[in-house]
Amino acid sequence: MPIVRIAMLAGRSQEQKKALAKDIAEALIRHCAADPSYINILFEDFVQGHWLAGDDMIDKSDDDVKSVRAVPISYER
Question: What is the mean pLDDT of residues 12-32?
C-alpha cells in the first residue's frame, strides 16, 4: 500500500493538487506495479512561519523562498 506524503507551503488549488496526485499515482502504477485502489496521497499545507529550512524560517510565499532545496535521490541496485 503506497503512501505518499507531500508537505508544502499552503496556496495550491484543489485542481493543482489533483493533477499532482494523478501524476504521482500514474508513476507508482507504472514503476512499482501498484494497485490504484491502494495508493494513498496525502497533502499537508503549512502556513507561512510554520516551516524551517536549514536556519531559515520560511515566512514568504514559495516563489520567494530560496532556502528550500530539492534533495537529490540516489538509486543503487
Answer: 96
